[in-house]
Amino acid sequence: xxxxxxxKGYRPQQRHLPILATLALLIGAYIFGASSxxxxxxxxxxxxxxxxxxxxxxxxxxxxxxxxxxxxxLSVGSVVALSTxxxxxxxxxxxxxxxxxxxxxxVVGALLGAGMGALIHFFEIQPFIATLIGxxxxxxxxxxxxxEAYSIDxxxxxxxxxxxxxxxxxxxxxxxxxxxxxxxAAAAYVLAFTRFGRTVYSIGGNxxxxxxxxxxxxRTKIAVYTxxxxxxxxxxxxxxxxxxxxxxxxxxxLELTAIAAVVIGGTILTGGSGYVLGTVLxxxxxxxxxxxxxxxxxxxxxxxxxxxxALLFVFIVLQRLVTRRTR
Amino acid sequence: xxxLKGLTKHRLFWPVVALLVLLLGDLVASPSFFKIxxxxxxxxxxxVDILKNGAPLILIAIGMTxxxxxxxxxLSVGSVVAISGxxxxxxxxxxxxxxxxTLIAFGLALGLSLVLGVWNGWLVAALGIQPIIATLIxxxxxxxxxxxxxxxxxxxVNSHSFEWIGxxxxxxxxxxxxxxxxxxxxxxxxxxxxxxxxLVEAVGGNPEASRLAGLRSARLTWLVYVFxxxxxxxxxxxxxxxxxxxxxxxxxxxIELDAILAVVVGGTQLxxxxxxxxxxxxxxxxxxxxxxxxxxxxxxxxxIMLFKALVVLAVCxxxxxxxxxxxxxxxxxxxxxxxxxxxxxxxxxxx
Amino acid sequence: xxxxxxxxxxxxxxxxFPGVLALDGVDFRMYPGEVHALMGENGAGxxxxxxxxxxxxxxxxxxxxxxxxxxxxxxxxxxxxAGVSTVYQEVNLCPNLSVAENVCLGREPRRFGRIQWGPxxxxxxxxxxxxxxxxxxxxELSTCSIAVQQLVAIARALDVDARVLVLDEPTSSxxxxxxxxxxxxxxxxRETGMAILFVSHFxxxxxxxxxxxxxxxxxxxxxxxxxxxxxxxxLVTRMIGKELQVLEDLEDSGPSRAEVAGxxxxxxxxxxxxxxxxxxxxxxxHAGEVVGLAGLLGSGRTELARLLFGADxxxxxxxxxxxxxxxxxxPRAGLDHKIAFLSENRxxxxxxxxxxxxxxxxxxxxxSRGWAxxxxxxxxxxxxxxYIKALDIRPANPxxxxxNLSGGNQQKVLLAxxxxxxxxxxxxxxxxxxxxxxxxxxxQRLVTQLSGDGMAVVFISAELxxxxxxxxxxxxLRDRKVVAERENQALTADDIMATxxxxxxx
Lengths: 327, 351, 506
Description:
- The complex is a heterotrimer.
- Chain A contains twelve helices and four strands, in the order H-H-H-H-H-E-H-E-E-H-H-H-E-H-H-H.
- Chain A has helices at residues 17-36, 43-68, 76-93, 98-122, 127-145, 155-162, 175-193, 195-212, 217-243, 254-264, 276-296, 301-326; strands at residues 150-151, 164-166, 172-174, 245-246.
- Chain B is built from 15 helices and six strands.
């Protein structure tokens, strides 16, 4: 091997560049907001980003696992809705205790995810299609359970929803945020430090090689969809805390927001490259766009989607340029 | 026996069977289901309805097939449907009713669709952005654009000439059916009589190898996104003409997912390469028939999604080679059934 | 001497793929402490036999015994656990992971389920050091050269407590020094009592390292021989089933050096270069001339070839074709100017695997005609049949999927694709790598014949003998620079080697 030129000083690894680009743009957006609106600069705006998007963050973490294997999960929005509907049905109609309902919801999410994973692994149905079927299936289940939204007034749920954890000063976060951050930390640990996590990356890099290397690719594939199912169910529960309702119309289009967040966070859709931390940044970016539009106050609701689309475009093109230049 | 076996292996066999089974179920549930009558020189009946209501989906599935064949996907078709309908309705409602107004409205709507297709194609072919993300941009922004055009209102129109594209008749048949048929024939001829089909399949099969073989793959990619957007634009006109209004928020909602399902059920793989336009039409008809069947069988409309999920699952499983392999093995292991001709298969180690 | 109990015994193995009987009742055995070569042409069934042994494929009939006990692996993981470790022909690693992970993944050191990154890196370093590879093990694998990737794959195989090590074409992307190193490693492993299955197209390597060999042809067992009892010529005869044609007459059949030197210049590159690819160089190619490119892997020979075709676009210099400045920015430009480029990477840059042989053959011609002027189906069939016959592509079925063909036949399909475009300049990047002797000879003969017909050829190969046999002129590259250009007159492999190695510390 020829000697490599040794470059001193900081040179970010290529795989970190997309994340750094996202981070830079996030900071830019925050500075823009803080310089335009006085109230924007308060720390609580940042914390509110977490409070408002905790459920989305959990869902996106599950999506990150799936996308890292080169798959996709379109069912997350429907599974979130199903979780809220099951919670509503069990708590309101059948008067179950909150923790029993929570357990049932998580098990249902796991089963749905595992089922889709099994379709993908055993029957070689493309992830897009298998999870699209899952999306229709879960949404269909919602409607067969109820066509009306439940209003949830369970005491335990209310306590969990209203508890504020003070962080000193005026600042506070909700229990949902704690749950979401624990999920993020656990996911980051699993992906970086366990054999399962590394197998997830290897499948995304080259599934055939991973199989020939003797890794348990089938089991891992089913597991990532199960994780995504559980994360969606948990996301649904956090949404119940946030909205106190079980609505079959919840989470329509949520899968796209989650995918957008994962991709803006620098994870490549073909798999094998990306970090959970990037997903957190992606969620923050989408959240900050929403907040900026709210702060502006003069924009009609449809401008939200146009600006989201435009910023999505800017982020994607920027990342593209950054990664292309280093090639 | 072998001919039958070849038939069941044909990639369109199971979608066609599913379609026939559904129709047969309808026939059993309501014996008059197949009745077609001629009233005022126009054909009416459930079967005509399936074709007519399925026309927008068929159109989009045709465009989507070519996109998917190049390893792409177009999530923005639903938004294009909404934008096209919104612009046409805006023009028709702002101008005097008449054939000229309608033609201009069609021209404007399709022109804008074309521009949107060029946008998608630019992102995918020129910037090299993953298709699912590239078209996600327009999918998200497009709903906003449609509402911007209608100023957040639902524009209703009352123009006979405009409604023709959705609910008119020509030669006793609903015009929507004829338009979808015309696009299908045109696309099939174009693709198979020219070298487009081969080149699209090559680009989808191995983009880098195709580039090195001298294919102008960027141009081809561009072309299929424009074509797909045009198909969506026509479908948007049909849908808005059918309901006499433009709803930027809900027109064509989730039609991209139905179209993708139709393409996959029709035997075109999402990984690109080989494609079948005829298969996609059958897939689209299958999905449309599902909706009609739910009503015909008296299944509560709430269950329509569940029903759709189960039928599509069944078709996808029956098409999956892995599923059939496992089914065969299980059957071979069941005592009592005659041993298959290829006895060694029994000793095959389980995967 | 053979011990009573073979380490591996495969009996009556039969494996059928749709339309192809890949293995037809093959028997195979291997003893501990021996290097056993599996020989045969492409399509003989070597790869299939290996994949059956390593659990990738199930068998349709037959039994496999490991150390006397019957086994039926359900996958490579199980085979590895039983002590059968494999390095596949195409490097099968994960390019997005670090070198260390690629060596250790699946067996990484863990404590309470947590991967110990430090110890893992050290273990990878140790294993690679045994192969004399010293790289940054935390670098992403995709940043390493193919040669290093190949060695990483071998290091990975050694990390297992392997009783049986399968090396499928392990040397095809290594240079001479690396090959020697690898063969030493193989010999050392044999001493530990491991049974090593060695597959290679390089006959001299096989004779240098193998104790025994099994020959397959067309999915059937031809025989098992001790290396001492067979000569190379006998071996090759058994592999291809006919007497080996003598290659010496090749040299006289093409145009002479004097003839091509007088021929007009077809393509002239002036100061052509690309950052990170190859430093600016000048090169003139005459009609009917064969220009050989020699250099180690990573010397810039492929990058040079890609610039001549337009696969990458140059950031300096010009290309003149017939004296006219002609920018070559895309492969399409190359095609339009009758230049053809056969990539070294068949799978990724050549074949469209799910299309048929016919469709793959007509692809470039159809591309140059544009979509609006399709070749009629009849014309396509004629072309396909003509070239299947001319190049002896097997199976001789134009509607077979190209992905199901063996490597050599796939290469011929790609050659046919370019020949029907009637190029004036044909660039062949490693056209004979991973190809059996029969196909290799055919391709070499074809090159001579084409240059006799006035076609200019750029020929790249790691085998210097091959380059010398075919070329009128040899261009030597080192460290992404053209360092010498020699008329092929009394030139020897040693001369070129010396030029290639100049300044490189051994």
